[in-house]
Amino acid sequence: MDIDVRGPRFGAAVTTVVLAVVLITGSAWLLAWQTLAFALGSAGGVARSPYGWLFRVAVRPRLGPPTEFEPPQPPRFAQAVGLLFASLGLIGYTLGPGWLGLAATGAALAAAFLNAAFGYCLGCEMYLLVRRADVRAE
């Protein structure tokens, strides 16, 4: 079943704020929260992530009906990519080296910002590239 495109974009906006605060404060706890949010989104799909739940309960009822939908697989893959970068960032912030925490968190922030501001999902594009390569390999 396809999903409302506004949900992942809302999640990306919240993620952008969370990751910006992580970079400003260096909070490993806040990055741990974001890592958990990515893990839930990659395991259960973006609708099952905390930000997906927030969108469904608090934001979507205040919007008009959706006019654009997308398949759930690309955003779910993007959540897995975010999980990878957030995990690397968490390792950097907690165990070191510090530059790993900053670089990985900054990369995740850049990807989230692109989706939130411009609707361009890097993880979704990666998913499509992987799928095309997989089809060609067969």
Q: What value does the Rg take, in angstroms? A: 15 Å
Count of helical stretches? 6
Mean pLDDT, all residues: 95
* Apparent shape: globular
Number of strands: 2
Note the main sheet.
2 strands, antiparallel
Q: Beta-strand percentage?
A: under 5%
Structural class: mainly alpha
Helix content: over 70%
Report the span from N to C terminus: 26 Å
Order of helix and strand elements from N to C terminus: EHHHEHHH
Strand order of the largest sheet: 1-2
Residue runs with pLDDT of under 50 for 5 or more positions: none
Protein architecture, described:
The chain has 138 residues and is mainly alpha-helical. It has six helices and two strands; from the N terminus they run βαααβααα. The protein has a two-stranded antiparallel sheet. The longest helix is centred in the middle third of the chain and has 22 residues, at 73-94. The radius of gyration is 15 Å and the shape is globular.
Provide a short characterization of the protein structure.
This protein is an all-alpha fold.
